[in-house]
Amino acid sequence: MTTIRTTCHSCGDVELSTADIALELTGAGDAGSYRFSCPKCLSTQVRPATRRVVSILLATGVNYEIILAASPITEDEISGFAKLLDEDDWFSRLTAVES
Q: Is the pTM here over 0.90, yes or no?
């Protein structure tokens, strides 16, 4: 089994398996971030992943997900969604396919 060493902000160096790491790649697929839970303090850690780090993590067998860039959710979108939840038919309206 492959062991990957990284650093927890609180605990210092920790060793993880490939299953302990979640790699998120940007649309270009050559950079992104990786996430893990520290095995000592159990806090979730997020680190940037440069092209080199991505290459190493992929070579060791870490699973990945490609994240396409999206704009942040706006206050208007949140407000509209909250209003939708106040209606009795919110779920059918939310899942309705527009043609």
A: no
